[in-house]
Amino acid sequence: MTTTLSARGLGRKYGKRWALAGCTLEIPAGHVTGLVGPNGAGKSTLLNLAAGMLAPSAGRIEVCGGRPGSGTAQLAKVGYVAQDTPTYAGMTVAEHLRLGARLNPRWDAALAAERIARLGLDPGKRAGKLSGGQRAQLALTLGIAKRPEVLLLDEPVAALDPLARREFLQDLMAVVVEQGVSVVLSSHLVSDLERVCDHLVVLVESQVRVAGPLDDLLATHRRLTGPRRDGPPPGAEVVTESHTERQSTYVARLTGPVHDPAWTAGELGVEDLVLAYMGSGATARPALEVL
Asked: According to the UniProt record, where is the region Disordered (predicted)?
């Protein structure tokens, strides 16, 4: 299996505070990977480390087989759209494209021009005068026109309205199909994960709670409901549990069939799966937007 991102004991410290600590993770190439977790889990720090915007304080990280930010060739492999979809307010759309061409050795000018025309962006308009959705599309254009091997997207659509968000994600999937680029998408929006991701990573307090192909995770996890007991039936690894006086409910990963007829096994949605792992071992149930 080819790996897009590999981290071992990865950490980043700001003064005395660790924003990310002891993170070990493997993200396979050729997938759209959803990176999800509560605020403060280290998602943005991880993506900044992967893009070469930050240097590790501990451990190591490799992206597309190289050390992030280690040189021109390595930088060309990675497209990065930060959380605020940054553009230069005083520069026009056309000036952004010319800057992209100067900074990126594999820049695809024809691709950039075609996208700008198809999106109806005025090349002479300054980025500061664009709508939020238009700025996000401009940032995505800059990211994909450099022809990267992996796109790192940090909450790129969180501030957009539903229509702009859907258009952005549709364009993203078209890029994945046409270019075969790997994507790591950080998002709090479960609907985004369901729409575009085929691989999932849940990160909580720098630790990977679960990772794998989304279809496989959904197929192997169930909500088990049965009479009040102190443990699940055989063949179930508990993720979270709750009890009433008469009934026990477990969200569990099944390692084998559940033969006991006293238990009812219900399927989980992406939201159920993510919230279960985000809540496992936590003192409070983390917030996650479901739109």
From this structure: 223-244
Closest among 86, 53, 61, 73 to 206, alpha carbons compared? 61
pLDDT at site 288: 40
Whether residue 224 sits in one domain with residue 206: no
Residue-wise pLDDT for 33-49, tens only, equals 999 999 889 999 999 99
Distance CA 207, CA 48 (A): 17
Distance from C-alpha of 7 to C-alpha of 20, rounded to nearest angstrom: 12
> What's the Rg (C-alpha) of the chain?
21
Q: Long-range contacts made by residues 246-250, C-beta under 8 angstroms, separation at least 24?
A: 249/223, 249/224, 249/225, 250/223, 250/224
Please check whether residue 68 is in contact with residue 74, taking contact to mean a CB–CB distance below 8 angstroms: yes
In a domain, 175, yes or no: yes
What is the rounded average pLDDT for all residues in the chain?
A: 90
pLDDT (tens digit, 9 = 90+) per residue, 186-196?
Answer: 988 888 888 89
CATH code: domain of residue 66: 3.40.50.300
Q: Supply the pTM of this predicted model.
A: 0.89
All residues at 6 or more sequence positions from 5 whose CB lies less than 8 Å from its CB, including other chains: 25, 26, 27, 50, 61, 62, 63, 150, 184
Confidence of residue 290 (pLDDT cuts 50, 70, 90): very low
Please check whether residues 65 and 93 belong to one and the same domain. Answer: yes
How many CA atoms are closer than 13 Å to the CA of 65, on its beta-carbon side? 7
Q: Is residue 254 part of a domain?
A: yes
For 132-156, write each residue's pLDDT tens digit: 889 989 999 999 999 999 999 998 8
Mention every residue, 6+ apart, whose C-beta is less than 8 A from residue 131. 164
pLDDT at 284: 35
Residue 45 has φ and ψ, to the nearest 5°, of -60, -40
DSSP 280: T
Domain that holds residue 160: 3-213
